[in-house]
Amino acid sequence: MIKVDLISGFLGAGKTTFLKKYARFLMGKGLRIGILEYDYGAINIDMVLLGELRGPKCELEMVPAACDADCLARRFKTKLIAMAMSGYDRVIIEPSGVFDMDLFFDSLREEPLENWYEIGSVITVVNADLESDIGETADYYLATQAANAGCIVLSKTQLSSSEEIQATKEHLRTAAERINCTKFTENYLEKDWDELTDSDFLKLANCGFHINDCVKVIAGAESAYSSVSFLDVPKGLDRFLGKVQEMYCDASFGQIYRVKGFIGDEAGNFEVNATAKKVTVTPTKVGKGTVIVIGTELHEAKIKEHIMG
Questions:
Q1: Whole domain around residue 58: which residue ranges?
Q2: Which of 28, 26, 29, 30 is nearest to 7 (CA)?
Q3: pTM score of the predicted model
């Protein structure tokens, strides 16, 4: 049986950064792994970020999420059937932050997937300094992801106070109670990711999962989310960061949850990852001016004019 792990987390939590570290640990143990990316938008930024992992011990696959629920379920199942024939020791699924956990569990209980796969670990990545008001829909996705996790991995703990971390845990408990989830895990990993050891990763690889009966209070909520994608964004890091800040401060652009991509500059190329609360800029070898904006009620024409103008 092939073990399949799910690494979930709401938009901007740091799933892809964590996945790279986890994947390198598994490959270091001699495992051959397949990574399945599921994301919104015409451009899959995370596939580009994970490209450095591709090699004899790691392959990358993608399922586009821009379709209805039935179509997505068929694509998801078909891709996993194909991956089962590829000789992987372990498969890691990184879904969009806007992900219905039932898709994962229901698909793996169906034939023929149940004959080839067994669920390994469900890991949910959550910002240690979680925003207090992220909205009802975001809270729903966050709660369902955390409710099924064998372990909740907190990101950016080194930048967060003990009070902020405690507030995040309380936020998760409250969100879980709101959907009548009574068996919420208290298994947290609270550590600077640069200090994670093989022992930490081994525990995560064996942390398992929980099946919780939660009330599905927002049926089809993923349809409320949309994205705007860009190719060949004009160079200039400061210019781009200024435009991102303006969009977060102006509700007429829509409710923006995440901006991510790659921006060229005279000083080099940079990966930008922005939420309303935090912007991270990291040097990268990726040279394309590729960006995706994710949110709800997005004013696409206005966003495009703003970013490209």
A1: 2-205
A2: 26
A3: 0.87
